[in-house]
Specification:
By secondary structure, this protein is an alpha/beta fold. It contains 11 helices and 15 strands.
């Protein structure tokens, strides 16, 4: 009988969709190697909101992050339990540890308890966290273990244009500080008016700004096609950065959330993007620093170097490699 994987994750308008999408990508990869996979999603916004979001795998709703009894029962019904560690109650981790079961955990912080099994941190900055070697736990760290959605599994060939003609701006699931309008306005004022600006994933109202396209929410295929058409991206350091790197897309990268710090540091160290953290200040956007970064980003040689660095990452097959590694480490049914 085929092994069964259950992937426990979270999604809602405040958290965003990155945690869901990385688990969905892995679930889909499992299905390609005859491992059945199901997503178990905690979503405060409910089923109707979630139905609008395109996922590749079967899913169901459950308030699982603080329900140790539910998790204990779930562990009895699958061979490969996988947890996205974001916002999980410490009591639940304790109960999982007490079962002695081997589990897989996605981690972003380096703060989760020492569980049996596998810990995954696909950030290029994962080594900064200095995870301890613990008996019974295997560490899968770095970009070789990134999870990308299926449209990004094909290797991208990109020609870097001499001049920037199209720019993407992507904040991610949340914009608590209201940065997006100021970023758009600064980019529009700095760049020639014929350069098209695509604001990705945010349905917000702007004053009349010339040549700005509000794309709203896009599915993975649409994001891939848009990334392939862009010359540069200005992005928060969430899950979408890896997808942009796989598309060999030069970037400005900055942090808007605590769990993006390691991701941001790692990608900047890999020279796939410009460190954009200095464009942020307590009042929002530092226009002078933003313009300085835009000047760098529109320089042809700078973009060419970033494209070479991204191409060298070879991320297109990382999801399938991770999936096969997990299946191998779990071996036969327990």
């Amino acid at each position: 009988m085929n092994q069964k994987a259950q992937l426990f994750t979270v999604a809602d308008p405040d958290i965003g969709l990155g945690h869901l999408f990385r688990c969905d990508a892995l679930a889909y990869a499992f299905q390609q190697i005859n491992v059945s996979a199901e997503l178990v999603i905690e979503c405060k916004a409910g089923k109707e909101w979630l139905r609008e979001k395109p996922v590749y795998s079967n899913w169901r709703l459950s308030n699982w992050t603080d329900n140790a009894q539910f998790i204990e029962q779930a562990l009895d019904n699958c061979e490969i339990p996988i947890f996205d560690a974001y916002a999980v109650d410490s009591y639940v981790w304790t109960k999982i540890h007490e079962t002695g079961r081997k589990v897989v955990v996605f981690d972003d912080y380096g703060e989760k308890p020492a569980l049996n099994g596998i810990l995954i941190n696909g950030s290029p900055g994962a080594g900064i966290l200095k995870y301890q070697d613990i008996h019974g736990r295997e560490l899968l760290l770095g970009p070789s273990y990134q999870t990308l959605r299926p449209p990004f599994w094909k290797k991208t060939e990109r020609s870097v244009r001499k001049n920037v003609e199209s720019v993407g701006i992507m904040i991610g699931g949340t914009d608590h500080r209201g940065l997006l309008p100021d970023i758009v306005e600064t980019v529009r004022d700095f760049l020639p008016v014929d350069v098209k600006i695509h604001v990705i994933g945010k349905e917000i109202m702007f004053p009349s700004v010339p040549n700005v396209c509000l794309t709203g929410f896009l599915d993975a295929r649409e994001i891939k096609n848009l990334f392939d058409s862009l010359d540069v991206l200005i992005s928060a350091a969430g899950q979408s950065v890896a997808e942009a790197v796989s598309c060999v897309l030069p970037m400005i990268i900055f942090c808007t959330e605590k769990n993006q710090v390691i991701n941001h540091t790692g990608w900047v160290q890999k020279k796939v993007g410009i460190d954009g953290n200095k464009i942020l200040n307590k009042n929002g956007i530092n226009r002078c620093m933003m313009e300085r970064n835009l000047s760098l980003l529109t320089d042809y040689s700078t973009r060419l170097n970033m494209a070479f660095a991204s191409a060298a990452m070879e991320l297109h097959d990382s999801t399938q490699n991770l999936c096969c590694k997990i299946k191998k480490l779990f071996g036969s049914n327990e």
